[in-house]
């Protein structure tokens, strides 16, 4: 059973609805996906409901929390979470609110830099509920200020760049504890792209359950060394595409980065 364990929808900064993502995943030959939207669980219920239209397609309830450690962004994935848990809903609501405020502040900074952009123009891409930096990037592309999303980040939106504004986040330790408290499995996302690799050991010391060894931004060397690291620390090996719907080098990514669930006992038994 082939699963992509890292998939975004338009409930965070993906382009497609949960229903559309599932149709695409089935077409790509996957047997299931984990919905792992950034800081939100709002897409999970619709995904589970819609997946029932297919006989053999399963949804794993997931989330990807954005944390920061020593000024570097660290993402933690939670799987099999109780997405109706009141403490999770409270925290994700706070995170969402702070994203809306931060979006307005970042637009203000772009205005100070001389770019003509309004929050309404951003909301045409984001909707009212959730704003991520990729939505601001898409609005900047529409206005002709930059050519693509990476350029928007390197010129304006990345941490340390002129339009960056910090938002409320929970710590790595709080995130791992929360995921476990609501019955989930905590996995360090895309460790291969961390600049400071000592963060991997830090997460292990905090009780992370596994490492996302397979990821669309990992090189073969990243993947192999992460699998060794996971094995020597008795950690779960997971993987996924980090599908957002955008074409990356003309590639949809979905269906290319996956794991065989039968090789991950902790996942297989829960499914
Ligand atoms: P935010 O959730 O608002 O902090 O934005 C983070 C999201 O923006 C990440 O999860 C990626 O989807 C995307 N992102 C971050 N950095 C870059 C980058 N350099 N180029 C393209 N996308 C990026
Ligand atoms: Zn994203
Ligand atoms: Fe991530
Ligand atoms: Fe992601």
Q: Brief description of this entry?
A:
The chain is of the alpha/beta class.
Structural write-up:
With 271 residues, the chain is of the alpha/beta class. Helix content is 39%, strand content 17%. The protein has helices at 18-27, 44-51, 86-112, 119-126, 133-142, 149-157, 172-181, 198-205, 220-232, 265-268; strands at residues 2-7, 32-35, 58-69, 72-79, 185-188, 210-215, 236-240, 259-260. An eight-stranded mixed sheet has the order 7-6-5-4-3-2-1-8. α5 packs across α6. The radius of gyration is 18 Å and the shape is globular. The chain starts with a strand and ends with a helix. The relative contact order is 0.17. The mean pLDDT is 97. The structure holds adenosine monophosphate, zinc ion (ZN) and fe (iii) ion (FE) (2 copies). One fe (iii) ion binds at residues 6, 8, 64, 242.
Secondary-structure-derived class: alpha/beta
What is the percentage of strand-forming residues?
Answer: 15-25%
- The end-to-end span amounts to 11 Å
Shape call: globular
Rg value: 18 Å
Order of helices and strands: EHEHEEHHHHHEHEHEEH
Overall average pLDDT: 97
Unreliable spans are none
Could you give the count of β-strands?
Answer: 8
> Strands across the major sheet, in which order?
7-6-5-4-3-2-1-8
Helix content: 25-40%
Strand count, sense and barrel status of the largest sheet are: 8 strands, mixed
> Count of helices?
10
Bound molecules: adenosine monophosphate, zinc ion, fe (iii) ion
């Amino acid at each position: 059973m082939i699963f992509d364990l890292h998939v975004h929808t338009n409930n965070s900064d993906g382009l497609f609805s949960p229903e559309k993502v599932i149709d695409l995943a089935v077409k790509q030959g996957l047997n299931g996906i984990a919905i792992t939207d950034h800081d939100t669980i709002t897409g999970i219920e619709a995904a589970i409901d819609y997946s029932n239209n297919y006989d053999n397609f399963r949804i794993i309830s997931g989330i990807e929390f954005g944390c920061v450690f020593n000024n570097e962004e660290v993402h933690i994935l939670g799987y099999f979470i109780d997405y109706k848990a009141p403490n999770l809903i409270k925290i994700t609501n706070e995170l969402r609110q702070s994203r809306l405020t931060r979006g307005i502040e970042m637009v203000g900074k772009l205005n100070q830099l001389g770019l003509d952009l309004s929050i309404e123009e951003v909301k045409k891409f984001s909707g009212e509920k959730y704003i991520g930096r990729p939505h601001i990037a898409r609005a900047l592309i529409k206005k002709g200020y930059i050519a693509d999303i990476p350029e928007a980040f390197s010129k304006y939106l990345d941490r340390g760049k002129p339009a960056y504004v910090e938002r409320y986040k929970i710590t790595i330790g709080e995130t791992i504890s929360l995921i476990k408290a609501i019955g989930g499995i905590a996995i360090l996302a895309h460790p291969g792209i961390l600049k400071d690799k000592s963060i991997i050991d830090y997460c292990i010391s905090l009780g992370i359950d596994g490492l996302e060894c397979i990821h669309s931004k990992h090189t073969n060397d990243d993947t192999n060394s992460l699998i060794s690291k996971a094995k020597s620390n008795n950690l779960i090996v997971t993987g996924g595409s980090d599908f957002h719907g955008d074409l990356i080098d003309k590639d949809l990514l979905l269906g290319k980065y996956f794991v065989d669930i039968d090789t991950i006992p902790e996942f297989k038994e829960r499914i």
